UniProtKB/TrEMBL annotation:
The keyword Protease applies. It comes from Cyclobacterium qasimii M12-11B. Residues 579-686 form the Transferrin receptor-like dimerisation domain. Keywords: Carboxypeptidase, Hydrolase, Protease, Signal. This is Glutamate carboxypeptidase II.
Length: 701
């Protein structure tokens, strides 16, 4: 009993000490009020509601455009409506395959054998026998039928295809086998088509995701031989609907008409592409007779991997996958701000899935519903946030981050002036380990909120469980693959992505509630904890007198990133002397942001700013991230406007920090380094001047 009392005393003392520290963006007096509000909010989060929402929204497979997905949409509107959020539908007509279409895979010679394209039924798991579960499929496959020899291309990366060419292995007219991993599946297809392949089979290798990693499902949470990773293979030079780059895909029957590309003007794939499990892949690869693979290309199947199958081994691949205009709908609920309703904190997660989608995306969707209800309860008690908090549920993300991108393109002007931050929670409760990535200005926000939330089934805070050194959190940098792309990389809105993770059966038919409760979070408490964390971040952003961006972090992170880039360049260009102009600009930025970070709390405590002045200062703060927007776009694609970050155009998922420079590095270029040094210098000095202008306004008061 004494130990328990001591524990409670220690936790209480920790919170009291936190409360005594002046919060970023708040005066000392307002810090006390905000601390009390956050304590109240934590109690409002109903952990049981998370489980209920998760079971309901993942009861059936629900791909974008399906009736089942429309039912999920209606449920989202119902829950947020009951929580008294102002809820709006944003419809779009986008060009996608409405369903998997038809496909077949078979070995033709030396023996005829059709191959499995569906997960096995699991005894005791009714979800696994649902009649609407789809075969394995890749959205945006080309349609066609081919019978051909086979070639193994390792992970199907740019380097892997180059290695095949170097070894004298031609894939022209052949069916390529490539395993999942290392890059976005769409690039496996892009490079296969570029080198002349007639078809592509993408398989999950047991060495990466299967029995080599431990027990397979249903005994463990590793891929079994029939488990198939679905996913889009869309690889345009922009994100979103393939027919409306830079413009929203507004409804065809709406008042506003949007010019659309003809499908022939796009880069959509023309070859048939489909995924398979490693059981089916083994049937083909065990018959291959060519040369053994080079080092690093051997996977986990119990035989030597070969580069070619030879003329005796032929496989038939047939895919019929029509594309059409499909109505999709974003659902956005708003808790209207009491003082600054036109300043927005936006939280989002998509709701369409490849099947049940319990971890991806259902866990994030259910968490946001739980958060919506808690915020609604606060408002009912008279605690409206000062700024508006928007809860967004995006559609058609799985096809290529489409729903959120169309909304960003539709609302780009408003986002440019109103959006304080975007917080993304795709698959946000997929395990018991917290993690995240963010723009520099939001990393401290993530850290501070993590200190406020107790980690489930423990006496420690989320910060204590997440931190490796007890002093900081290992927060990464945003890459590709989810709904923050449009906000951060196209519109220049500071963004973060976070939640909990673990080992999942990603994009398979097995990602159901049975699997979730058994392997992901048996206590079903993580959803509530993530809702608390997300809510604390939202409330800090919404209620701070001055938006609590961590401005000195820009200089800290930029210094690190330019050093990393310089080291990479020197590896192929030893004479390179560095980005001297940018480094000088960063030094100036370090000085100005450090000074401002000391001036801001003093100005807040002295209460010498009226509402009009505060509104103007916050408008100035919102513009800081826009300093990195380069109107010509990046050299690999003009849609990507941010000089600070983009998704890797060669892998699709990885984070490219300083992307214009990273593009030079990826292609071992030397001639444009001085040009980009000048461009980055200009952007950093632009940011610096904005910071100085804010300081001058504060000092003049």
């Amino acid at each position: 009993m004494k130990r328990l009392l001591l524990l409670y005393f220690t936790v209480g003392l920790t919170f009291n000490l936190l409360a005594q520290s002046q919060m970023d963006g708040f005066s000392e007096n307002d810090t006390k009020k905000q601390t009390e509000l956050e304590d109240l909010f934590l109690k409002k989060v109903d952990f049981d509601n998370y489980k209920n929402h998760l079971k309901i929204i993942t009861a059936n497979p629900h791909t974008a455009g399906s009736k089942a997905n429309e039912a999920v949409r209606d449920y989202l509107m119902e829950v947020m409506g009951k929580a008294e959020l102002e809820t709006t539908l944003y419809p779009y007509d986008v060009y996608i395959p409405k369903d998997p279409g038809d496909s077949e895979i078979a070995i033709v010679t030396p023996k005829r054998k059709p191959l499995n394209q569906m997960e096995d039924i699991i005894p005791g798991n009714a979800y696994s026998s649902h009649p609407d579960l789809p075969k394995g499929w890749n959205a945006y496959s080309g349609s066609g039928e081919v019978t051909a020899e086979v070639v193994y291309a390792n992970y199907g990366t740019k380097e892997d295809y180059e290695k095949l060419a170097e070894l004298g292995i031609s894939i022209k007219g052949k069916i390529v086998l490539a395993r999942y991993g290392k890059n976005f599946r769409g690039f496996k297809a892009k490079y296969a088509e570029q080198y002349g392949a007639a078809g592509l089979l993408i398989f999950t290798d047991p060495g990466d995701y299967g029995y080599s990693k431990g027990l397979v499902y249903p005994e463990g949470n590793n891929y079994s031989e029939s488990a198939i990773q679905r996913g889009s293979v869309l690889t345009e030079s922009f994100t979103g609907d393939p027919l409306t780059p830079f413009e929203p895909a507004l409804p065809l029957d709406g008042k506003t008409k949007v010019d659309r590309l003809d499908p022939s003007e796009t880069s959509l794939h023309t070859i048939p592409i489909t995924p398979i499990g490693y059981g089916a892949a083994s049937e083909i690869m065990s018959l291959m007779k060519g040369k053994p693979v080079p080092g690093g290309w051997q996977g986990g199947l119990p035989f030597t991997y070969r580069l070619e199958g030879g003329s005796e081994l032929t496989v038939r691949l047939s895919v019929t996958q029509p594309k059409e205009f499909v109505r999709v709908n974003n659902v956005v609920g708003t808790v209207k701000g009491s003082l600054y309703p036109d300043e927005w904190i936006i939280l989002g997660c998509h709701y369409d899935a490849w099947a049940y989608g319990v971890t991806d995306p259902g866990s994030g969707t259910a968490m946001l519903l739980t958060l919506s209800e808690a915020l609604g309860e606060l408002v009912k008690d008279g605690y409206s946030p000062k700024r508006s908090i928007m809860i967004a549920h995006w559609d058609a993300e799985e096809y290529g981050v489409i729903g959120s991108t169309e909304w960003v393109e539709q609302m780009k002007k408003e986002l440019g002036t109103n959006a304080v931050a975007y917080l993304n929670f795709d698959a946000g409760v997929s395990g018991r380990s917290f993690g995240g990535a963010a723009a520099p200005s939001l990393k401290k926000l993530m850290t501070d909120a993590a200190k406020k939330v107790i980690y489930p089934d423990s006496s420690k805070t989320v910060f204590e469980m997440w931190s490796k050194d007890g002093e900081s959190l290992p927060i990464g940098n945003l890459g590709g693959g989810s709904d923050h792309i449009g906000f951060y990389m196209h519109a220049g809105v500071p963004s973060l992505s976070g939640g909990t993770g673990g080992k999942t059966l990603y994009h398979t038919n097995y990602d159901d509630f049975f699997f979730y409760e058994k392997f992901i979070d048996p206590s079903l408490k993580m959803g509530g904890a993530v809702a608390q964390w997300a809510g604390i971040m939202s409330l800090k952003l919404a209620n701070a007198t001055l938006i609590p961006y961590d401005l000195p972090r820009y200089a800290t992170d930029l210094t690190m990133h330019f050093k990393t880039s310089t080291d990479k360049i020197k590896a192929y260009y030893p004479a390179f002397t560095g980005f001297q102009k940018s480094i000088s600009a960063i030094a100036a930025l370090e000085k100005s942001t450090s000074a401002l970070s000391k001036t801001l709390p003093k100005a807040l405590n002295e209460n010498r700013l009226n509402k009009k002045e505060l509104k103007k200062l916050n408008a100035d703060l919102i513009q800081l991230e826009k300093s990195f927007l380069h109107k010509e776009g990046m050299p690999f694609g003009p849609w990507y406007l941010s000089l600070y970050a983009s998704s890797d155009p060669y892998s699709g998922y990885a984070s490219w920090i300083l992307p214009a420079i990273e593009f030079q590095i990826a292609n071992a270029k030397k001639d444009q380094l001085n040009h980009w040094d000048a461009v980055y210098e200009k952007a950093i000095l632009n940011l610096n001047q904005k910071v100085i202008a804010i300081s001058q306004k504060l000092e003049s008061r």
